[in-house]
Amino acid sequence: MIKVGISQCLTGAKVRYDGGHRNNKFCNQELTELFSFVPLCPEIGIGLPIPRKTIRLVGDIASPRAVFSDDSSVDLTDKLSEYADNHSRSISDMSGFVFCKASPSCGTQRVKVYNDKGHSESKGMGIFAARVQELHPNLPIEDDGRLNDPLIRDSFIKRVYIYDEWRAMEKSGITAKKLYKFHARHKFTLLSHNQKIYRKVGPLVASANKNDVNEVAAEYIGLLMEGLTHVATRKNNTNVLMHLQGYLKDALDAQDKQELRQCIIDYNSGEAPILSPITLIKHHFKHNPNPYIAQQSYLNPYPKQLGIRVQMR
């Protein structure tokens, strides 16, 4: 199973400052069938008790400090960062991380940072989460609150599966040929998320040779993960669906072509969910196999039991 980190409180463990938890049903009821979660709680990990004083971020939004809410003289910033450093090796074996939203240690965005007048701005990032991101910039991360959005959920799960596949390829040794095949498999998925980066990585991959393949690969995976953090749009999905339709032009009769075209148009206009044209396209390729399309991740980005695309329009 794919190994994914998770803030321990999201598993139902009572490790929060008040002795409670933030059990996340999606993670614990659906993702546990697919992912092997590795729970971490930096606040417990640095020796804080349960229950405990609350922590908050203060100072500069770009580099805040973590202190006790009622005693700013106790600075926990370095300890929380060091906890990430101490677990960096195990995190490097993960293919994603789900953090607890709004937490001064684990929040990935919109964490409150207080200035010296006691006013806050929700523009910070938790100390532990920020250090994990710094150490592992390509690691797919998301906070549990944002996973309630089907589009963000879709983006995160895709990134986890693709990054896990990338890590396996890295372990076997990257070659220019492997890099090309990897990009070919995921190019339509990337196109559905970010056209600008899609146009950039194609020439990059084509330029790779045995002398610089590792440097090219490092740049490529950074761009790919960046591109996939953007949610797939209706416009981009329609573009991909039209591309896929083109591979069927010599296989379908006029009636089937019109039906598929209309199905894509209905999706583009918001009258049908994305599952409609995807299901029809998969049906046609089942009866008209195409080796290139068969290996595309776009049509089957993750196990269908997740039902994410059922919720997407």
Q: How would you characterize the overall build of this protein?
A:
This protein has two domains: 2-147, no CATH class; 149-313, no CATH class. It is built from 14 helices and nine strands. Helix content is 49%, strand content 13%. The strands form two sheets. A five-stranded mixed beta sheet has the order 5-4-3-7-8, covered by helices on one side. It has helices spanning 25-30, 42-45, 77-86, 88-91, 127-135, 150-172, 176-193, 195-206, 213-229, 234-246, 254-268, 275-287, 291-294, 308-311; strands at residues 2-7, 35-40, 55-58, 65-68, 71-75, 97-99, 111-114, 120-124, 141-143. The two termini are 29 Å apart. Helix 7 (176-193) crosses helix 10. Strand 4 (65-68) and strand 5 form a beta hairpin. The chain has 313 residues and is α/β, with parallel strands linked by helices.
SSE inventory with pairings:
Elements: E1 2-7, H1 25-30, E2 35-40, H2 42-45, E3 55-58, E4 65-68, E5 71-75, H3 77-86, H4 88-91, E6 97-99, E7 111-114, E8 120-124, H5 127-135, E9 141-143, H6 150-172, H7 176-193, H8 195-206, H9 213-229, H10 234-246, H11 254-268, H12 275-287, H13 291-294, H14 308-311
Parallel strand pairs: 1-2, 1-6, 3-7, 6-9
Antiparallel strand pairs: 3-4, 4-5, 7-8
Helix pairs in contact: 3-5, 6-7, 6-9, 7-8, 7-9, 7-10, 8-9, 10-11, 11-12
